[in-house]
Amino acid sequence: MYKKILVAIDGSHTSSLALQEAIKLAQEQSARLRLVHVIDKFPFITADAGMMDNAQLEEILFKAGQDVIDEARAKVIAAGLEVETALPENLTQRIATVIAEEAKGWSADLVVVGTHGRRGIQHLVLGSVAEGVTRAAIMPILLIPSRH
């Protein structure tokens, strides 16, 4: 049923749970996985100055993202599955939109994303990437709770 499963990862415990579930599904379905970690430059853009000119900051963001991808890729390979990765950069959109566009561009059959379970003011301030992916994506979404 699912042949191409995209997994949004951010290095958190919750995204690790999402990856574990995606690995199980991919093994059962003989599916390929694509791991996506969005390098979010958006918080560093200002209306007056544009993008902050800081090559060191970009290098730090890319290295952190690559570390997240490498750790997740190793888990998928250890499970004996095919894996692709993507580190899209975000300059102007919500992270959820970038993930949904990656899923559409790759023709994913399913997107797996962890939910942090934020509520109240924390949810209002931080928003929910999982909720945004659910609204923006055109394919089924599997939400994996944080299980605190």
TrEMBL record:
It holds the Pfam family Usp. InterPro entries: Rossmann-like_a/b/a_fold, Universal_stress_UspA, UspA. GO terms for cellular component: cytoplasm. Keywords: Cytoplasm. Gene3D superfamilies: HUPs. It comes from the Bacteria. Its main location: cytoplasm. It is found in: Cytoplasm. Belongs to the universal stress protein A family. PANTHER family: STRESS RESPONSE PROTEIN NHAX, UNIVERSAL STRESS PROTEIN UP12. This is Universal stress protein. It comes from Acidiferrobacter thiooxydans. The lineage of its organism: Bacteria, Pseudomonadati, Pseudomonadota, Gammaproteobacteria, Acidiferrobacterales.
